[in-house]
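Could you please consider the sequence and fold following this short note?
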Amino acid sequence: MKVKICGLQNIESAQCAVSSGADAIGFVFAESKRRITTTKAKQIISKLPTNVKKVGVFVNPSKEEIERIVSETGIDTVQLHGDESPEFCQSLSFPIIKAFSIETAEDLKHIDAYSCDYILLDGPKGKYYGGNGTTFDWSILSEFDAKGKKVILAGGLNLKNVAAAMKTNVYMLDVSSGVESDGQKDTAKIIRFLNLVKNTQTMEEIK
């Protein structure tokens, strides 16, 4: 199972995540306590290997804003975490992750209208559109048909529930606050989270 470490703000945390097996790194350009400048994101991205996805997180941006930040930073995937329409998503020429806030199974029905490369299922909205550190009832995913879209699970993931999250058999796990201490990325937690996901898979493959 793939892992995205989101809300990175410094090169040390990013390099730790990559060296420990992260498949994607997320940079938040929307209003958030984890917001990063384009200059800082560019500096970090320039030092990351090409095989790791660099995801830019936006909330209700203009097309021009996305294109400018992608051009300036080297972001290769765009995550839309607001009220963006299916038409807006289709107008962009980048791989798109469309995020949805999920509370009940009814919320999953809105996904059919989107033809994005990836969909991200996040917990209920709080102060921000995403990054609120709350889970939803993952059992509703047992009957969910993503119709070929790659599903990313986010919202409230941490060291205690990662094993349960892996049982949902989604494409990728997206963690942010669950690998932080006192509001900052904790390299020990990043390493532990990635080890739990990656080493469990390795042991299962050996069996």
Observations:
- Confidence is low (pLDDT under 50) at residues 203-207.
- Strands lie at 2-5, 24-28, 53-58, 77-80, 96-101, 118-122, 150-153, 172-175, 180-181, 184-185.
- Helices lie at 11-19, 38-45, 63-73, 86-90, 162-166, 187-206.
